[in-house]
């Protein structure tokens, strides 16, 4: 990376330097397309390979062998000739393929001929009573700290929820000598039964052996409470204890830290703001973009690759990134040689084995997705579940009308932390499917930018600090 | 009225603030009304405009209608059962130079000659009292003290609900596909079948020219997408709505501290797709102007920007009144990015024309005949 002007036009702009973004940018640049790979983090890797070029974690094994597979992807992208722009926030993308980027305190507009959105996933909201208390955070956020800084919890820590990430993170913490007091597993018993019919695929999947050995490794050293059916975080000004129901009995465990997680969902904000059509996924219970076989969207020139195209994990993300890049190359450089894509599609199929089993097993139960009462739903504007229910009952048909009444989703997070919850609550009140309720109409900037940046004024220290990074 | 009815005295096309207001006033007069809306009430410019309730700086032809509307705004809750978020903190037009102030003085003098007193010339001292954050070099301006701002989506929805309570039937998500008159009755073809009635009001906003064309009355309507931005919360610094005369900039701070920045820079509308695309190059200009003029805003972040889809006529004033080619058809569109405040009284006036055939409100300047091919 050299410090030259970014330039205002590229053949291909790839947004997000996780596995999908790294793989697609490398392929596009190798084929001769001028390629810009943008990521808001300080290093490449995305969430799964976060801090891969800089992590201080020792021993390396603590993060698991899969983590280090990211090194090859990063090296290939770096060799490819793609311009890698780190610490740069994409705040708008429109159907004319104008990409707004904020970099070092300056906002600039870049014209792309093709855009590949590889913005990955974010954690599903987990709205329980008390989830806004200091001391409550997500497993994903905790893992970010672990990878980037090598920090594992040292005080009383409880993990609650479900999904593969919980077990991976717990294992990483234990290997680094960190502390986990209990894991409160919210997987309903009925999910095991529902998942059984998808077991054949899972049995063939490499995920099975890895997953089971992680669970065994953690269970040897941490108390695991199964079939947790209710949860709340309690404390005066900070978290003091976690109260939960299991086997019909209410119990509590003291904790300074509660880490919540119930799976990840596509991060759809940028694609939606660009006008890409999305549909409700009734299994993963989230919005996913409508895509062709190469990740092409309803907006000509924009593709989505990686977990943003539907949750499928890092290996699938990588292959989807390659398919999207190939489509871009075919469109821009029709004479560039491209190898047969059969091997990519074969790997894609293999890595998708077992997905249905995992999706069904880890489908979060209703009570942790569709809260009641005084539980905060929209954290930015402090809107409760009851307020949303009451407003929906008055005749408010959808999330966009809801914004006008309650301002939910209008804060700086632009609905990332409440959007799914609001859609599902309104659907619940009206007895409709989430697909019929819809989602927030997302307005750019997709991430807030400071007035100074937009104005193109040389930002002083104060203005730089005012930028909200989400 | 039975919600499954197919016939009414009047079919209103469009449930923006104008269609909804006209439907309300028609229903209050005892007429049967069916409203056909392709999206939902307030989906476009009526719901996403800057919310300015402004008599200030209007075209002279619009002033009587605007003043009548202001009287309705001041009792909006008794009209629609909701205060619509209306707050009358005034609107101020700022002159940045002595030359600009001279032009404003001429305007106020001219209005006085015509008998209008709502615009008042103010000097630098009064300007600073009303808008302390304004640059010290600004020599004065005009204030319209009864003006203010309201919540546009809430207002449009309130008119829609009030009209429904008064008996109007709303069909939302239903698009008009054709329009013809047979034996003195209009048949409005829609995605939900045909609706019929002796009279039709065309309040279809940015799509109104298509209705007019369908009856052989083409109009030169320009589809525009005025852009707005909203900032994160900043300390309270401004009560009235502020408009800078020469800069394409307007400003309003909400009670929660967020600030809306508008002023007329245009995005790119795509009306067939129901969307608009922002032009960030122009929004950068707005941001630069704010940075220059309002130091208090320098630490703010931009959290949202958008553009509604709206109709603009070549002379920047609306089309209001009966069709000149088709009997029983009435037009109410083309408000050229300043129709929100006019909604209440224009609806009342339109209802009066439809019901009685005449009005004392001077609306000759808005006759569609002005665009007829000569």
Q: Would you give an account of this structure?
A:
The complex is a heterodimer of chains A (470) and B (374). Chain A is α/β, with parallel strands linked by helices. Chain A has three domains: 9-122 and 265-338, 3-Layer(bba) Sandwich (FAD/NAD(P)-binding domain), CATH 3.50.50.60; 125-262, FAD/NAD(P)-binding domain; 370-437, Arc Repressor Mutant, subunit A. Chain A is built from 19 helices and 22 strands. In chain A, helix 1 runs parallel beside helix 10, helix 4 (139-149) runs parallel beside helix 5 and helix 10 packs antiparallel against helix 11. The termini of chain B are far apart. The model of chain B has no long low-confidence stretch (mean pLDDT 95). The radius of gyration of chain B is 21 Å and the shape is globular. The longest helix of chain B has 16 residues, at 98-113. Chain B has helices spanning 17-28, 45-48, 63-73, 76-80, 98-113, 124-130, 152-165, 208-214, 280-293, 343-356; strands spanning 10-13, 33-37, 52-53, 91-95, 120-123, 140-144, 148-149, 169-172, 176-182, 185-190, 193-197, 199-202, 222-224, 227-231, 241-244, 249-253, 259-262, 268-270, 275-277, 301-307, 310-312, 319-322, 329-333. Chain A binds chain B through residues 92, 94-96, 98, 100, 107, 109, 275, 397, 401, 404-405, 407, 410-412, 414, 443-445, 448-452, 454-457, 462-463, 466-468, and chain B through 40, 47, 151, 153-154, 157, 231-232, 256, 268, 270, 273, 275, 277-278, 280-281, 283-284, 287-288, 290-291, 297-306. Strand 22 of chain A pairs antiparallel with strand 20 of chain B.
Percentage beta strand of chain B? 25-35%
Please name the two chains that share the biggest interface, counting residues whose Cβ lies under 8 Å from a Cβ on the partner chain.
A-B, 35 and 33 residues
Mean pLDDT of chain B: 95
Number of helices of chain B: 10
Task: Characterize the quaternary organization of these chains.
Answer: heterodimer
What is the 3D form of chain B? globular
What is the SS-derived class of chain B? Answer: alpha+beta
Q: What is the global morphology of chain A?
A: globular
- Output the structural class of chain A: alpha/beta
**Which fold name fills CATH's third level, the topology of the largest domain in chain A?**
FAD/NAD(P)-binding domain
Question: Which percent bin holds the helix content of chain A?
Answer: 25-40%
CATH architecture of the largest domain in chain A: 3-Layer(bba) Sandwich
Q: Looking across the biggest beta sheet of chain B, what order are the strands in?
A: 5-6-4-15-16-17-14-20
Number of strands of chain B: 23
Helix count of chain A, per DSSP? 19
The fold-level CATH name of the largest domain in chain B is FAD/NAD(P)-binding domain
> Strand-residue fraction of chain A?
15-25%
Q: What's the number of structural domains of chain A?
A: 3
Major β-sheet profile of chain A: 7 strands, mixed
The CATH homology group name of the largest domain in chain A = FAD/NAD(P)-binding domain
């Amino acid at each position: 990376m050299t410090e030259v002007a970014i330039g205002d036009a590229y053949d291909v702009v790839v947004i997000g330097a996780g596995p999908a973004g790294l793989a697609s940018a490398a392929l596009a640049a190798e084929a001769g397309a001028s390629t810009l790979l943008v990521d808001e983090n300080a290093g490449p890797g995305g969430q799964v390979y976060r801090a891969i070029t800089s992590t201080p974690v020792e021993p390396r094994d603590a993060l698991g062998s899969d983590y280090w597979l990211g090194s090859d992807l990063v090296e290939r992208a770096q060799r490819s000739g793609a311009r890698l722009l780190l610490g740069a926030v994409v705040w708008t993308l429109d159907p004319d393929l104008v990409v707004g980027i904020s970099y070092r305190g300056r906002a600039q507009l870049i014209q792309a001929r093709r855009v590949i959105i590889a913005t990955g996933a974010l954690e599903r909201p987990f709205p329980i009573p008390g989830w806004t208390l200091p001391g409550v955070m997500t497993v994903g956020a905790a893992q970010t700290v672990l990878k980037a800084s090598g920090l594992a919890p040292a005080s009383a820590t409880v993990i609650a929820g479900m999904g593969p990430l919980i077990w991976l993170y717990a294992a990483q913490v234990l290997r680094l000598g960190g502390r986990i007091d209990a894991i409160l597993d919210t997987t309903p018993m009925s999910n095991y039964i529902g998942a059984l019919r998808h077991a054949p695929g899972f049995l063939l999947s490499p995920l099975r052996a890895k997953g089971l050995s992680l669970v065994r490794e953690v269970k040897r050293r941490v108390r695991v409470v199964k079939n947790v059916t209710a949860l709340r975080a309690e404390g005066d000004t900070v978290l003091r204890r976690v109260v939960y129901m299991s086997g019909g009995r209410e119990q509590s465990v003291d904790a300074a830290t509660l880490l919540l997680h119930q799976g990840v969902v596509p991060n759809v904000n940028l694609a939606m703001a660009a006008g890409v059509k999305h549909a409700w996924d009734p299994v993963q219970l989230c919005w996913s973009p409508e895509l062709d076989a190469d990740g092409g969207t309803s907006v000509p020139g924009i593709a989505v690759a990686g977990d943003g195209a539907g949750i499928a994990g890092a290996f699938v993300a990588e292959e989807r990134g390659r398919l999207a890049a190939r489509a871009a190359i075919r469109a821009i450089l029709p004479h560039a040689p491209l190898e047969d894509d059969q091997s990519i599609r074969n790997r894609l199929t293999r890595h998708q084995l077992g997905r249905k089993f995992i999706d069904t097993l880890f489908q979060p139960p209703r009570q942790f997705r569709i809260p009641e009462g005084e539980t905060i739903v929209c954290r930015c504007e402090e809107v409760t579940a009851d307020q949303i229910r009451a407003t929906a009952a008055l005749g408010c048909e959808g999330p966009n009308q809801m914004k006008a009444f309650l301002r939910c989703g209008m804060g700086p997070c632009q609905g990332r932390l409440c959007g799914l919850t609001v859609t599902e609550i309104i659907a619940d009140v009206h007895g409709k499917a989430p697909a019929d309720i819809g989602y927030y109409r997302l307005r750019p900037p997709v991430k807030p930018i400071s007035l100074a940046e937009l104005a193109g004024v040389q930002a002083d220290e104060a203005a730089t600090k005012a930028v909200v990074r989400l | 009225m039975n919600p499954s009815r197919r016939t009414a005295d009047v079919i209103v096309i469009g449930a923006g603030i104008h269609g909804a207001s006209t439907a309300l006033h028609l229903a209050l007069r005892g007429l049967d009304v069916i409203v056909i809306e392709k999206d939902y009430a307030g989906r476009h410019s009526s719901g996403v405009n800057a919310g300015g309730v402004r008599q200030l700086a209007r075209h002279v032809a619009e002033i009587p209608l605007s003043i009548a509307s202001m009287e309705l705004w001041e009792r909006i809750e008794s009209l629609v059962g909701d205060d619509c978020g209306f707050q009358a903190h005034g609107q101020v037009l700022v002159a940045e130079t002595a030359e600009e102030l001279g032009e404003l003085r001429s305007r106020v003098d001219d209005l006085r000659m015509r008998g209008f007193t709502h615009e008042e010339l103010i000097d630098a001292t009064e300007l600073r009292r009303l808008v302390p954050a304004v640059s010290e070099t600004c020599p004065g301006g005009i204030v319209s003290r009864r003006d203010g701002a309201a919540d546009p989506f809430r207002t449009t929805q309130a008119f829609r609900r009030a009209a429904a309570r008064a008996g109007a039937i709303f069909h939302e998500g239903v698009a008009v596909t054709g329009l013809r008159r047979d034996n003195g009755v209009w048949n409005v073809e829609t995605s939900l079948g045909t609706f019929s009635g002796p009279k039709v009001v065309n309040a279809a906003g940015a799509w109104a020219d298509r209705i007019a064309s369908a009856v052989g009355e083409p109009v030169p309507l320009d589809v525009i997408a005025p852009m707005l931005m909203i900032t994160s919360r900043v300390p309270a610094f401004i009560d009235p709505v502020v408009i800078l005369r020469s800069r394409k900039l307007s400003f309003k701070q909400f009670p929660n501290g967020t600030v809306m920045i508008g002023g007329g820079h245009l995005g790119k509308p795509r009306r067939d797709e129901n969307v608009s695309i922002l032009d960030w190059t122009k929004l950068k200009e707005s941001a630069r102007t704010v940075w220059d003029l309002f130091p208090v805003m320098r630490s703010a972040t931009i959290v949202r920007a958008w553009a509604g889809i709206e109709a603009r006529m070549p002379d920047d004033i609306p089309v209001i009144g009966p069709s000149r080619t088709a009997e029983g058809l009435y037009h109410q569109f083309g408000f050229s990015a300043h129709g929100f405040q006019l909604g209440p009284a224009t609806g009342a006036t339109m209802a009066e024309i439809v019901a009685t055939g005449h009005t004392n409100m001077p609306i000759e300047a808005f006759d569609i005949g002005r665009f007829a091919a000569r």
